[in-house]
Amino acid sequence: MIKTVSTTPYADQKPGTSGLRKKVPEFQQPNYAENFIQSIFDSLEGYQGKTLVIGGDGRYYNREVIQKAIKMAAANGFGKVMVGKGGILSTPAASNIIRKYKAFGGIILSASHNPGGPTEDFGIKYNIGNGGPAPEKITDAIYERSKVIDSYKISDFPDINLDRIAREDVGGMIVSVIDPVEDYAALMEELFDFGAIRNLISLGFRLNFDAMSAVTGPYAKEIFEIRLGAPDGSVRNFLPLPDFGGHHPDPNLVHCKELYDEMMSDDAPDFGAASDGDGDRNLIIGKGIYVTPSDSLAILAANANLAPGYSHGIAGIARSMPTSGAADRVAEKRGVGIYETPTGWKFFGNLLDAGMATICGEESSGTGSNHVREKDGLWAVLLWLNILAVRGESVIDIVTQHWATYGRNYYSRHDYEGVDTNAANGLITALREKLPTLPGTKYGDLTVAAADDFAYHDPVDKSVSQHQGIRIMFEGGSRVVFRLSGTGTTGATLRVYIERYEPDSTRHNIETQEALADLIAAAQAVADIKGHTGRDAPTVIT
Ligand code: G6P
Ligand code: ZN
């Protein structure tokens, strides 16, 4: 039986960088999730009888919303729902399922790297038929719809048993509970030389993967320990927990400090890695060296041809604007395309679909390729392992040789979290107003060469995205970028991205913050961070 339930709109359902993210109690308000899901369906056309993929990162409230979404999909006329067993699908695995089974689209329930639990974060995101996040045209339509919605449709069949693999007909719609790992693991076996990696591991290469009590646990266990033969215990925190064990499932140097310390110790394993809540981010640490996401992108792009899936070379590289220019140097030397997009994986979709870019990456720990339309944490780890297996060198040797060949882009991000929203907006507005006066201005030995408010002109669909971050470029190729985070749920987070290019290999061993000290001072001077935010120092430095 299909029920039409009347509802009243919520004014705050505007999707951010990656879907709608709010605290769980906000999602638990009457009809809050239902309104948003119906707004998604109302913004789509032509899905009658088609397949919808549903899955999430296993966080608190995941199962409840999955049941609602299945019943609403049935009431709205979808022909089939494919849902991961236990309600689990990593974000890249969901993207793969949408593509492989030619689904109409998918609903991914995740707040990515944000904490989970009864008072923590939850999120709903819609992905289109190419497997990627919905473009702004659709997210804008969803928001507009959410502001006027007055009813939603839901079927009243009993809850689906999500804990066994099965296929059932629930009053006209098929619900298929699928193995969340199988198709993804098969795709990884196609792209990478599992034989070579297995051989490397059998020769004593030690790897340490932290699943952070989040969604990659079952995937990593299957791939690293079962298929690649890494000893039991190589994958830690592998059981997905609704509250991620009380941790923040963000694979950075703050939240993976234990792994980092271990990798810097004398008896460190050869390779350490981690992924986030929903499995799309990655952290790569070699014995004695942390690889920044920007360097990782450049190194993966430069060596991708060593993996079977990319043996014919790559068409181009795309990176988000705040990501360092390390990848640009690789593209230039290889004669392949390079594209600079706004922050947010959705901007890579058109370039990938058009075959213009093969490998994409962001400073926010995302790397991926045209194999799916999301960034992919385990993919990045496997490409690293494939490269290490073929080259037979250590991570530190590969990174230092890369710098020697291409030069080093010293890079750091300073985050000011939980800043008052008005203060943060005030800082950006003041900077924007100042832009025309900046060229020629000196900060110590640094001279501003150019300054702008980044706008992206999509070369494929010709859409324009304005106000994507303030860039201050200095003579000699150094740069400072200011941007407000689009993924937080409380207050504002100011991100300051700092970068210096150093071609001279005798100067590649300076401590990063020291190498960037004059730029850090210039960032403070140009934006008056302290004056606007009252903060003396960033909360997180990566
Ligand atoms: C999500 C998106 C990424 C993006 C990141 C930026 O993780 O999937 O594509 O780079 O958010 O986050 P921010 O907090 O800087 O807006
Ligand atoms: Zn994520």
UniProtKB/TrEMBL annotation:
Residues 13-151, 183-285, 294-406 form the Alpha-D-phosphohexomutase alpha/beta/alpha domain. It is an enzyme of class 5 (isomerase). Residues 1-10 have a biased composition (Polar residues). SUPFAM superfamilies: Phosphoglucomutase, C-terminal domain, Phosphoglucomutase, first 3 domains. Keywords: Isomerase, Magnesium, Metal-binding, Phosphoprotein. Gene3D superfamilies: Alpha-D-Glucose-1,6-Bisphosphate, subunit A, domain 3 (3.40.120.10), Alpha-D-phosphohexomutase, C-terminal domain (3.30.310.50). Belongs to the phosphohexose mutase family. PANTHER family: PHOSPHOGLUCOMUTASE, PHOSPHOHEXOMUTASE FAMILY MEMBER. This is phosphoglucomutase (alpha-D-glucose-1,6-bisphosphate-dependent). It comes from Rhizobium freirei PRF 81.
